[in-house]
Design brief:
Chain A: This is Ferredoxin. Chain A: It holds the Pfam family Fer4_15. The structure holds two protein chains of two kinds. Helix content of chain A is 18%, strand content 22%. Chain A is of the alpha+beta class. Chain A is globular. Chain B has 16 helices and nine strands. The interface between A and B is medium-sized, with 20 and 17 residues.
Chain lengths: 83, 413
């Protein structure tokens, strides 16, 4: 995944989104272990980010962890999207 | 002296006056269509069509209400410039059980829909053109297509029968020979859709309006309706004890007027469901609201696909809502965990409330589940279902209280 350098104009505002493909997600929960600050689990085990649905803004300091989550997801349900 | 133009082939045709537009032809055949509306302009280029649609203010009639010109503009300019790249789809899947207007339109005025498809396809130099419609209208539409040489390139396909069959990416899947279920999308269909081609999908009523705008222009289109909802729209109107009727009404018509026009006694209604099973309730006191975005916004509703269903004041709304929520839970495509699990859970809590379980935590549990499913699917099915359920709790708060207190006296059938 090729990530752009952070845009100085929006340093406070994450420019990368973690996209969850719900049609692939099986609720294995690996992403919620790698990104506990970003993702909780709902009562069925699916990743849950309060305030966001399928596209979760990733703060810069969590970009590496988000990249790991993408590559380690056993269902390949995650992608990073540059806004 | 010059000869008068030959008017026997195409006599000059006046633009339809009043609110009878899409339904102006007295018969569905091509001859009647041509004498009613006149010939379709030979070619409208994409810039001219885009400008006309923008000036018209036409919004999509499939439910989401996306401006028609924006969808056209969303096809990348490089694709619009190249010929034979784009796929154009007319969508009449109409999976919503309360809607009948698309099927009615295809039976009454199929040639307007065909004209709309040809107008858009011509403007974009389309690679292929599809008409996706329910089994019940295929024969009639097939006859209409066979009546004209210019429609030979339109492929008629049978729509899948499910609530979500009309969702744009589900239509694309169906046409590609895959399961007719929504796709997860990170790029728009207008960039990459059927076979990876830029794909422009319009509801068939939207296409029929486009056919008239191409002929009579944006100013004519706006001459009926309100600023917020210009033109006419087809509505499917029904209520307890009244079979549904499809009408063409001016945009921004008062909802009570539309209901009364079909013979519904609005004095006997507790509310009207606006926008179908993914819509929201308009309480009886608000029936003079206009069928437009501005008036409906406060109730979480929008004109959508033009569905108005009156609920009689004797019917228990919680029972009705529980049945609808149960139906919608069963219509999940089964792909996305929060929808697969959350919708049946939400419906089950609503059924407990409807049955008379007096646990005061039930409404809060419905709200919690609605919040959990919202935004967490690859299509809007969980969001629409949550909207309907939340609207029920808000508009029928007194009925919820009556159930929790154990004294709902309404008809629970």
């Amino acid at each position: 995944m090729n990530l752009r350098a952070p845009d100085p104009r929006s340093a406070a505002d994450p420019t990368v989104l973690l996209h969850i493909d719900w049609t692939k997600c099986d609720g294995r929960g690996l992403c919620t272990e790698i990104l506990p600050e970003l993702l909780a689990r709902d009562e069925w085990g699916y990743p849950l980010s309060y305030g966001y649905g399928s596209n979760v803004p990733v703060p810069d300091r969590l970009l590496d962890a988000a990249t790991d989550a993408v590559s380690l997801c056993p269902r390949q349900a995650l992608t990073l999207i540059d806004r | 002296m010059s000869r008068a133009p030959d008017t026997t082939l195409f006599p000059p045709v006046q633009a339809p006056a009043g609110t009878t537009r899409l339904t102006a032809a007295r018969a569905a055949d091509y001859g009647t269509h041509q004498t009613t509306f006149g010939p379709l302009p030979a070619h409208t280029d994409s810039a001219a069509l885009l400008a006309a649609l923008r000036d018209s203010g036409l919004e999509g009639r499939g439910g989401a209400g996306f401006p028609a010109w924006r969808k056209l503009a969303a096809v990348p300019a490089r694709e619009r410039a190249r010929r034979r790249r784009v796929v154009v789809i007319g969508n009449a899947a109409e999976g919503e059980p309360l809607s009948q207007k698309d099927a009615t339109l295809l039976l009454r005025s199929p040639h307007l829909v065909i004209d709309g498809l040809l107008t858009v396809a011509g403007a974009l130099g389309a690679h292929s053109v599809y008409l996706y419609a329910q089994a019940s209208v295929l024969e009639a539409v097939g006859r209409a297509l066979a009546e004209r040489a210019d429609a030979a390139g339109i492929e008629l396909r049978e729509a899948a029968e499910s609530f979500i069959s009309g969702e744009a990416s589900a239509v694309v899947n169906a046409l590609a020979g895959r399961e007719p279920v929504p796709q997860d999308r990170t790029v728009r269909l207008t960039e990459s859709g059927l076979g990876g081609r830029p794909t422009l999908l319009h509801n068939v009523e939207t296409l029929a309006h486009i056919a008239l705008i191409a002929r009579f222009g944006a100013a004519w289109f706006r001459s009926v309706g309100t600023k917020g909802d210009p033109g006419t729209r087809l509505v499917t109107v029904g209520s307890d004890g009244h079979p549904s009727t499809v009408l063409e009404v001016a945009g921004g018509s008062r909802i009570g007027d539309v209901l009364r026009f079909t013979g519904v006694d609005t004095g006997t209604l507790s509310a009207v469901l606006v926008g179908g099973y993914h819509g929201a309730w308009l309480p009886a006191y608000a029936l003079e609201a206009r069928l437009d975005r501005a008036d409906l916004a406060g109730f979480g509703a929008n004109p959508g696909a033009g569905i108005l269903m009156g609920l009689g004041e004797r019917r228990c709304p919680i029972t009705v809502a529980a049945a609808v929520a149960t139906y919608l839970a069963g219509e999940t495509a089964g792909q996305c965990g929060p929808c697969v699990n959350g919708l049946p859970a939400m419906a089950a809590v609503l059924r407990r409330l409807a049955r008379g379980d007096r646990d005061p935590g039930l409404p809060g549990e419905v709200r919690r589940l609605a919040a959990i499913v919202t935004g967490r699917g690859s299509c809007n099915h969980p969001d629409g279902t949550a909207r309907f359920v939340l609207s029920t709790l808000t508009v029928f708060a007194d009925d919820v209280a009556a159930h929790l207190a154990g004294h709902c006296r309404k008809d629970h059938r």
